[in-house]
Amino acid sequence: GNRADIPFDDLGLQFTTRHGHGFGVIDNAAAGLHIKREGWTKFLEDTRGEVRRKFGPERERLYLGHWNCSIFPNCS
Fold this sequence. Notes:
- Helix content is about 35%, strand content about 25%.
- It has helices at about 35-55, 55-65; strands at about 1-5, 10-15, 20-25, 65-70.
- It has a four-stranded antiparallel sheet, with helices on one face.
- A hairpin with a 6-residue loop joins strand 1 (about 1-5) and strand 2 (about 10-15).
């Protein structure tokens, strides 16, 4: 697939495929969007090091981000 930075360097990433599917990731936003933040924030902080160790910094970035996904046009 294709990866492009969102227009603001510090905001996140966008991914697309040639078939119209794609998703965006807003950096470091996962815990801020959940109602029970304290538990979720603690879980992310407790597990992010293991994600980075096993999968590297790019996947850690995805792990901590908020995903906005679409499977358009096929399944919407």
